[in-house]
Automatic annotation (TrEMBL):
GO annotation (BP), single: cell wall organization
Lineage, uppermost ranks: Bacteria, Bacillati, Bacillota, Bacilli, Bacillales
NCBIfam families on file: PBP_1a_fam
Family according to the record: In the N-terminal section; belongs to the glycosyltransferase 51 family.
PROSITE patterns: PROKAR_LIPOPROTEIN
Source species of the chain: Caldibacillus thermoamylovorans
Residues that span the membrane, as ranges: 18-41
GO cellular component terms given for this protein: outer membrane-bounded periplasmic space; plasma membrane
Protein name: Penicillin-binding protein 2D
Domain Penicillin-binding protein transpeptidase: 328-604
Reactions accelerated catalytically: Preferential cleavage: (Ac)2-L-Lys-D-Ala-|-D-Ala. Also transpeptidation of peptidyl-alanyl moieties that are N-acyl substituents of D-alanine; [GlcNAc-(1->4)-Mur2Ac(oyl-L-Ala-gamma-D-Glu-L-Lys-D-Ala-D-Ala)](n)-di-trans,octa-cis-undecaprenyl diphosphate + beta-D-GlcNAc-(1->4)-Mur2Ac(oyl-L-Ala-gamma-D-Glu-L-Lys-D-Ala-D-Ala)-di-trans,octa-cis-undecaprenyl diphosphate = [GlcNAc-(1->4)-Mur2Ac(oyl-L-Ala-gamma-D-Glu-L-Lys-D-Ala-D-Ala)](n+1)-di-trans,octa-cis-undecaprenyl diphosphate + di-trans,octa-cis-undecaprenyl diphosphate + H(+)
Main subcellular localisation: membrane
Gene name linked to the record: pbpG
Length: 689
């Protein structure tokens, strides 16, 4: 019987043909399925890789001062910002054929199936880095068929739309390393307090072993398990040619220095300052809460970390620990408005209320430089005089009376000059000036200085009885310090999103809003609080801290029953200090009234230590002459006490102090070029001795 006619042969051939047909169809269907799946994945486009990331806050020198993480720490760094040892360690232990497979590793899958079959249990995983990345981004970790199918599709979609470099970078930035740290940068900072790019071999191998089971292989949970896995990884790296056997052995025996959970402490730097930054991210830049907390922003601030530390130390040194008195400090760079240091209270943990930016307090005599700027603008000079004596001011209708008092009830009972009134903080002189100019003048001038708080047009406004914020006063004095250019307090210089795009950058230019000549004259008069030549019926207000000063400062102190202020500056630095009680309790003790001044001088002296003395440079429109402080006339040998004083050109005195002092009343003193202004107080107030 021929073979071809043999029925068994024919049946066998038929089965073979059928098997071949089935195989061919399977191959075709498989190929078509794979091709179709790939095309669907390709046409679907790259999946959106939007993962929560911590927003990082930087000081002006680039150091990290804080982060927002809601209990999780997440960062994103480029692959070239990650240690090559960490990358190689991860590939060696997690996915040796990462660069050759298309998202799945058939050899590893087969090996895992055999291992599981032999053990009759799930003992070996086969997930590639691509699969793990897909799971981390889009899926839960439940073990269901539906989840497996979704994971496969997302894996194909990643492989179809992203390069291997992008997938590896994404994986290393999203994998969980335990203790709330996601991504290698967060892990590196948490475990070793260094950036991922700075990891050495033995540190990299240890971190690469944690993702397999953070609760088992974290060195803070089980050092022995973590160490054993590190050594396994180092052996694998040597086996695969990433490192030599000698390097592996050296790394295995290297001492591991952990940072503990140091990363958790980073948010404590300048907490009041950081609160203001967060507020401005919302109100000024327009970012929503979720973007700020989880958007992976890089926020570059104006904080000078060293100066911030100086401020905190001086406050702690000056105010006794058992005292209930509070304080707030703002330090600004006047040229730019950059806030370089800020505290809003003595202890953020006890009270996060920011007394520098939120509290409304009476500024006392620190308002006077603004008043006297307005006076100089309207024809006053440093030697314009009013009589310093107890005076009652009565409204024109006779219904209201106001009697301002000087500190310790001391008065000259004689005419005094503007420059001496400022240095001695004479309240009667201030109120007379305020009423002479018109009460609306100070309100308008304060707005020019950037004060936005509402001010009452009352006689006592000259003594700072309307509430303002410390940050406003610091900004107002910055206008004086920078020669009269408008600035505003700046906390943020730049914001970069998670993709590296700059979404905000500070670019506002300063505009000249004050007269530079008048501003210089005002600044020079403000140096008088530290000049004993201006002592008169009382000492200059800076006398108590004069021995501590080694630089040329301009400034003004201020006090009310419940508030104590000191604001002073150089051309490069402005510091404003407030002290007082939250409950509105009076400051009765003499030492407590000195806290603000002592904090201020210690901050300025520490901040400027080793730097050359910065003086205010005269402007072209001023002229300086020697003045006798007592008379306000040109000094001669008959009047040996003299102070070099600046005037707007053409307004300097021409009489000499050897001449008899003219007896003129306040009403007859020509203090303004506007004759209608000189009659203002007669229309609304009469002065009664």
């Amino acid at each position: 019987m021929e073979l071809k006619t043999n029925p068994y042969f024919r049946k066998t051939v038929k089965y073979i043909h059928l098997l071949l047909l089935i195989g061919a169809c399977s191959v075709i269907i498989g190929f078509f399925t794979i091709f179709t799946t790939y095309m669907i994945a390709k046409l679907s486009g790259p999946p959106p890789i939007e993962i929560p990331q911590s927003t990082i806050y930087y000081a002006e020198d680039g150091t990290v001062i804080g982060e927002s993480h809601n209990g999780q720490k997440r960062y994103w760094v480029n692959l070239d910002e990650i240690s090559p040892d960490l990358i190689n360690a991860t590939l060696a232990i997690e996915d040796q054929r990462f660069y050759s497979h298309i998202g799945f590793d058939p050899k590893r899958i087969a090996g895992a199936l055999i291992a599981d079959f032999k053990a009759m249990a799930k003992v070996q995983g086969a997930s590639t880095i691509s699969q793990q990345y897909a799971r981390n981004l889009f899926l839960s970790h439940e073990k269901t068929l539906v989840r497996k199918i979704k994971e496969a599709f997302y894996t194909i979609r990643l492989e179809a739309n992203y390069s291997k470099k992008e997938i590896l970078e994404g994986y290393l930035n999203t994998i969980y390393y335990g203790h709330g740290t996601y991504g290698i940068e967060a892990a590196s900072r948490y475990y070793f307090n260094k950036n991922a790019k700075d990891l050495n071999l033995h540190e990299a191998a240890l971190l690469a072993g944690i993702p397999k089971g953070p609760n088992s292989f974290s060195p803070f949970i089980s050092y022995d398990k973590a160490k054993a896995r590190q050594e396994l990884i180092l052996s694998e790296m040597a086996k695969q040619g990433f490192i030599s056997n000698e390097e592996a052995q050296k790394a295995k025996s290297a001492n591991i220095d952990f940072a503990g959970n140091l990363g958790d402490k980073q948010g404590t730097t300048a907490p009041y300052f950081q609160d203001v930054v967060n507020t401005q991210l919302k109100s000024k830049i327009g970012l929503d809460e979720r973007t700020i907390e989880l958007g992976g922003l890089k926020v570059f601030t104006t904080l000078d970390s060293k100066l911030q530390k100086v401020v905190e130390e001086q406050v702690k040194k000056t105010i006794p620990e058992n005292s209930l008195i509070q304080t707030a400090v703002v330090v600004m760079e006047p040229k730019t408005g950059y806030v370089q240091a800020l505290i809003g209270g003595r202890d953020y943990q006890e009270s996060s209320f920011n007394r520098a930016t939120q509290a409304m307090r009476q500024p006392g005599s620190t308002i006077k430089p603004i008043l006297y700027y307005a006076a100089l603008e309207r024809g006053f000079t440093p030697v314009s005089t009013f009589r310093s004596e107890l005076t009652t001011f009565t409204s024109d209708d006779g219904r209201e009376k106001y009697t301002p008092e000087n500190f310790n009830h001391k008065y000259a009972d004689d005419d005094i000059t503007l420059m001496q009134a400022l240095a001695l903080s004479d309240n009667v002189y201030a109120v007379k000036t305020h009423l002479f100019l018109g009460m609306e003048t100070l309100v308008e001038t304060a707005k020019k200085f950037g004060i936005e708080s509402d001010l009452d047009e009352v006689p006592s406004l000259a003594l700072g009885t309307s509430n303002v914020r410390l940050i406003e006063m610091a900004n107002a004095y910055s206008l004086l310090a920078n020669g009269g250019k408008s600035v505003e307090p700046v906390f943020i210089t730049k914001v970069v999103d998670s993709k590296g795009k700059v979404i905000y950058e500070q670019e506002k230019e300063a505009v000249q809003v004050l007269d530079p000549d008048i501003t210089f004259v005002m600044n020079h008069m403000l140096t008088g609080i530290f000049d004993e030549k201006l002592n008169g019926y009382t000492n200059v207000t800076g006398q108590s801290i004069l021995s501590k000063t080694t630089k040329t400062y301009a400034g003004k102190s201020g006090s009310t029953n419940m508030d104590s202020w000191m604001i002073g500056f150089t051309p490069k630095l402005v510091t404003a200090v407030w002290t007082g009680y939250d409950q509105g309790k009076s400051i009765n003790r003499t030492d407590e009234r000195q806290f603000a001044k002592n904090i201020w001088v210690d901050i300025m002296e520490n901040a400027l230590e080793g730097k050359p003395d910065q003086i205010f440079k005269p402007t072209p429109g001023v002229i300086g002459v020697n003045i006798n402080p007592e008379t306000g006339l040109l000094a001669t040998k008959d009047c040996p006490v003299k102070r070099y004083t600046y005037f707007i050109k053409g307004t300097e005195p021409t009489e000499y102090c050897s001449e008899p002092k003219a007896n003129s009343s306040d009403d007859e003193q020509p203090l303004t070029k506007d004759p209608e202004k000189s009659l203002w107080y007669r229309k609304w107030f009469k002065w009664i001795d």
